[in-house]
Write a structure and sequence with these properties.
6-stranded parallel sheet, Deoxyhypusine Synthase, 3-stranded antiparallel sheet, single chain, 16% strand, globular, 392 residues, alpha/beta
C-alpha cells in the first residue's frame, strides 16, 4: 500500500459520523426526506403546472414558485383578501395591461403603489404611449427636447404635462368643503375617467374604481397625478385637500372588517420602498382602532432585489416583520430575491390559466359615500367602517 510519501499504507480516515450509531442515522434522515426533482419542460405545460414543477426543484426556482403557489393558494381560500404592494417603473415598462388584468380578475383586492405609477397609468388611459429607448443616450439632449427617460424607455414630457389639464378638469367635480383621502381621490378619478372624453384605454384607475378596489398611496404628492392639484390651486385659488391621516385609519378598518367577517388578509409585495411599509402598516397600526386582536397578515409573499443586511425596510424579511406586528405567527412565507416584473407577467398568466372559466371572486370590495366615508362590502354585507370602528 502507498503511504503519504508515495509508498503503500492504509487510506486516511474520512471525517464522518458513526453509521452504526442509531441517533446519527435518525438525525441524518431528516435532511433527506424531500429530494430535489429535475425540472423537465414539456410541450403544452401550463403556467401553473410549470410553477408547481419549479417548486419541486431547488434554489431560486423553488423560492419564486413558492411566491406564485402562495398567491394561487390565497385565491382558492374562502374569505381571503389579497393585498398587493408594488413599487418601480412597471407602467412605463409595459405592465399597465397586466395590472388591469389582476384587478379585473380580482386576483388582487387592495392595491398599494406610488403616485408616479398612477400618473403613468393616467397617461396610458388617455391613449398615450411610452417608447422604446436606450440608456446609451445624451440625457442633456433629452432635457432640451422634453424627452423623459425611464432607464431604456422614453416618455413624451409634453404629453405627460397635458395630464395637468385633465386633472384640472376633474378637480372641478371635487368639493373644497371637505377633504379626500388619496384612495378616494383615485377612486373618483377612475370613475370620472370611465365616462370622460379623455378615456381611450383601460388602466389601473378605471379597473380599480369599477371593481371597488382601493388604491392606497403612501406619498400622494410624489407624482403629477396629485401634484397637479398644487398647480390647480395656484391657477384657481381653490384649496382641494388630501387627507393621508384618515387613509391610514381606513386601511386598518378595512382589515378589521375583513377579520370581523371571519376572513383573513394576505400581502404580496413586489419591490420595496414606501408601498411595502404602507401596506404592512395596515396591520401594525391596528392599535389605532383599539384592535390589538387582529390576527395580522396570514400570507407574506415577496419578490425584491433589496438585501436584508442594510437594515432597511425594503430588504427586511417577512419574519422580521412579525416583530412589528405586521404578520401573524401562522403566516405562510415565500420570498424570492430578484427582479419582479418578468415573474409578475408569468404569474399573472399562470393565474389566468388556473382560474379560466371560474367566477370572479367577490369576497371584499369598497366604495366611497358622498361625504368620503369608506363603505366596505365584505361577505355580501356593507359596512360603514368609519361608524363601525369609531373614527372621524
Amino acid at each position: 500500500m502507498e503511504s503519504q510519501g508515495g509508498g503503500k499504507g492504509p487510506p486516511a480516515a474520512r471525517l464522518a459520523g458513526d453509521e452504526g450509531d442509531p441517533q446519527y442515522r435518525r438525525q441524518r434522515w431528516q435532511f433527506f426526506k424531500s429530494p430535489v426533482e429535475r425540472l423537465q419542460p414539456v410541450a403544452g405545460m401550463g403556467g401553473n403546472d410549470l410553477f408547481a414543477a419549479m417548486h419541486r426543484a431547488g434554489g431560486p426556482l423553488r423560492n419564486l414558485a413558492g411566491v406564485y403557489l402562495g398567491w394561487e393558494e390565497m385565491l382558492g381560500r374562502p374569505r381571503q383578501a389579497v393585498w398587493l404592494a408594488i413599487a418601480g417603473a412597471y407602467i412605463p415598462f409595459g405592465l399597465g395591461a397586466t395590472m388591469r388584468t389582476l384587478l379585473e380578475r380580482r386576483f388582487v383586492d387592495v392595491l398599494v403603489t406610488t403616485p408616479a405609477q398612477v400618473t403613468h397609468d393616467l397617461t396610458e388611459v388617455r391613449g398615450l404611449r411610452h417608447y422604446h429607448g436606450s440608456e446609451d443616450v445624451d440625457d442633456d439632449q433629452l432635457q432640451r427636447l422634453d424627452v423623459n427617460r425611464y432607464w431604456n424607455v422614453f416618455g413624451d414630457e409634453r404629453e405627460l404635462n397635458a395630464n395637468d389639464d385633465v386633472i384640472a378638469e376633474f378637480a372641478v367635480t371635487l368639493s373644497d368643503a371637505r377633504t379626500y383621502t388619496p384612495s378616494e381621490y383615485f377612486y373618483r378619478l377612475g370613475l370620472w375617467l370611465d365616462s370622460s372624453a379623455h378615456k381611450a384605454a383601460e388602466g389601473m384607475l378605471t379597473a380599480a374604481a369599477r371593481q371597488g378596489i382601493p388604491i392606497f398611496c403612501p406619498s400622494p404628492a410624489d407624482g403629477d397625478v396629485t401634484g397637479d392639484l398644487a398647480h390647480y390651486r395656484k391657477r384657481t385659488g381653490r384649496r382641494l385637500i388630501l387627507d393621508p391621516v384618515k387613509e391610514v385609519l381606513d386601511m386598518v378598518a378595512l382589515n378589521a372588517a375583513i377579520e370581523d367577517a371571519a376572513g383573513r388578509a394576505g400581502l404580496v409585495t413586489l419591490g420595496g420602498g414606501a408601498p411595502r411599509n404602507y401596506a404592512q402598516q395596515a396591520m401594525a397600526c391596528a392599535y389605532m382602532l383599539d384592535r390589538a386582536d387582529l390576527k395580522r397578515y396570514n400570507y407574506g409573499l415577496r419578490i425584491s432585489l433589496d438585501p436584508v443586511g442594510t437594515g432597511g425596510l425594503s430588504g427586511s424579511s417577512i419574519s422580521e416583520g412579525k416583530t412589528w406586528k405586521k404578520y401573524a405567527p401562522d403566516t405562510v412565507i415565500s420570498e424570492h430575491y430578484g427582479e419582479f416584473m418578468a415573474p409578475l407577467v408569468q404569474m399573472t398568466q399562470a393565474l389566468l390559466d388556473r382560474y379560466e372559466g371560474m367566477p370572479v371572486r367577490d369576497f371584499v370590495s369598497m366604495r366611497y359615500a358622498d361625504d368620503g366615508r369608506m363603505l366596505v362590502k365584505v361577505a355580501g354585507h356593507e359596512v360603514d367602517v368609519q361608524e363601525a370602528y369609531g373614527y372621524a
